[in-house]
């Protein structure tokens, strides 16, 4: 991508280029320069809220390894591990299951060099078990389970308008002191792609995760070759809608997307209907998309909390309950976050979805 926010005076920039530049510019980008996680940062994710979330993901991974027939070698790839909070708890959980642990190779797929440093500090473990990767070349044999929390929503999207059957793409341009949006005729190749998805039919405003799908193409190839699957947890919706869902967050508050560039996070709501269609088209089976509440409860989060509470004082119990409430309450993360699993395996009986 040649154009960036710095030379916006001369050029216009598509939404995904803007989003990509703001987050991942090597020198200035938000994720290249900042640790945004936690109370002191800009936002809090589920692994920051409670370790119990990551433990449950760990249990789900082990159960899926069992469903895959307990292969002697299993590759686990965390997509976008952030500050490493989940990976740290996963390693701790995996160690409690020696047979699984000896089979597992754990890869962390991370784009930000700064976050890789932070993750390395947090996850101190034998170097022959954990590997940081920027592509999937090292994953050559054994089934593979990819998983990511709030990974897909951090990958830039394109935005389009459909006017009387004409497809137009949204761009940004600087006019005097302000950045303004405008639309240009969409490329024919993009229009063809958008028209091909049933889940986008009839919409007059479309969000399309071109770069996200490029990431998934690489992942799907590995799954089709080696078997296994991909679990994604993200905020998003089930029925396609005509909404501009791009949002920016800074210091736990909403921020104008065109302000505080490089200093604020940018995300969007994932269209799970479109995501399911994409996986189906690429020959993966897809479990019915469920809410975070459904998934975590099915995987036994409430029972696990009960066990933990037995060794806690009143203050700790209250603290755990408050955090659990945040993860599960329908008005908080419980319903807004969805879980999808796309896979290649003869065994469809994967836990957490029915
Ligand atoms: C919103 S954060 C979520 C972090 C963590 N999973 C959590 O739940 O706390 C998004 C993460 O994905 C990473 N990321 C985004 N796009 C990526 C890409 N194309 N390849 C690898 N990592 C990426 C970011 O650097 C960051 O670590």
Number of helices: 14
CATH C-level: Alpha Beta
Largest sheet: 9 strands, mixed
Point out poorly predicted stretches: none
Q: What is the CATH architecture annotation?
A: 3-Layer(aba) Sandwich
- Give the tally of β-strands: 17
* Approximate strand percentage: 15-25%
CATH topology grouping = Rossmann fold
Over all CA atoms, what is the radius of gyration?
A: 21 Å
Q: Which shape, going by the Cα principal axes?
A: globular
> Into how many domains do the coordinates divide?
1
On the 0 to 100 scale, the average pLDDT is 94
- Head-to-tail CA distance between termini: 42 Å
Structural class: alpha/beta
Bound molecules: S-adenosylmethionine
What's the short version?
With 354 residues, the protein is α/β, with parallel strands linked by helices.
Keywords for this structure?
single chain, 354 residues, alpha/beta, Rossmann fold, 9-stranded mixed β-sheet, 5-stranded antiparallel β-sheet, binds S-adenosylmethionine
Explain what this protein looks like in three dimensions:
It contains 14 helices and 17 strands. It is globular, with a radius of gyration of 21 Å. The model has no long low-confidence stretch (mean pLDDT 94). The chain has one domain (13-155, 208-344): 3-Layer(aba) Sandwich (Rossmann fold). The chain is 38% helix and 24% strand. It binds S-adenosylmethionine (SAM). S-adenosylmethionine is lined by residues 31, 37, 45, 47, 80-82, 109-112, 115, 149-151, 154-155, 215. S-adenosylmethionine binds at residues 31, 37, 45, 47, 80-82, 109-112, 115, 149-151, 154-155, 215.
């Amino acid at each position: 991508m040649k154009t960036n926010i710095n030379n916006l005076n001369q050029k216009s920039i598509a939404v995904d280029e803007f989003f990509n530049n703001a987050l991942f510019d090597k020198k200035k980008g938000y994720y290249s320069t900042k640790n945004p996680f936690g109370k002191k940062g800009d936002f809090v994710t589920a692994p920051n809220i409670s370790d119990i979330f990551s433990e449950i993901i760990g249990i789900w991974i082990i159960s899926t390894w069992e469903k895959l027939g307990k292969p002697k070698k299993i590759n686990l790839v965390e997509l976008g591990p952030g500050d490493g909070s989940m990976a740290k708890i996963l390693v701790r959980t995996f160690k409690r299951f020696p047979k699984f642990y000896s089979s597992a190779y754990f890869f962390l797929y991370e784009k930000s060099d700064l976050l890789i440093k932070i993750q390395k500090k947090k996850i101190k473990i034998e170097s022959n078990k954990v590997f940081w990767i920027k592509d999937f070349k090292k994953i050559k044999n054994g089934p593979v389970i990819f998983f990511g929390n709030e990974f897909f929503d951090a990958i830039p999207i394109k935005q389009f308008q459909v006017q009387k059957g004409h497809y137009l793409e949204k761009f940004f341009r600087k006019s005097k002191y302000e950045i303004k949006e405008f639309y240009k005729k969409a490329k024919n190749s993009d229009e063809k792609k958008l028209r091909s998805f049933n889940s986008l039919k009839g919409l007059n405003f479309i969000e399309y995760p071109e770069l996200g799908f490029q990431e998934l193409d690489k992942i799907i190839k590995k799954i089709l070759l080696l078997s296994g699957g991909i679990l994604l947890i993200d905020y998003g919706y089930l029925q396609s809608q005509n909404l501009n869902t791009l949002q920016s967050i800074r210091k736990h508050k909403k921020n104008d997307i065109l302000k505080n560039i490089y200093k604020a996070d940018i995300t969007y709501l994932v269209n799970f209907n479109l995501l399911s269609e994409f996986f189906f088209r690429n020959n993966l089976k897809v479990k019915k998309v469920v809410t975070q509440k459904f998934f975590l409860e099915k995987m036994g989060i409430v029972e696990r909390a009960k066990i933990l509470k037995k060794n806690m004082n009143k203050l700790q119990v209250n603290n755990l309950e408050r955090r659990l409430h945040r993860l599960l309450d329908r008005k908080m993360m419980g319903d807004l976050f969805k879980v999808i699993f796309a896979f290649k395996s003869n065994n469809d009986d994967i836990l957490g979805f029915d």
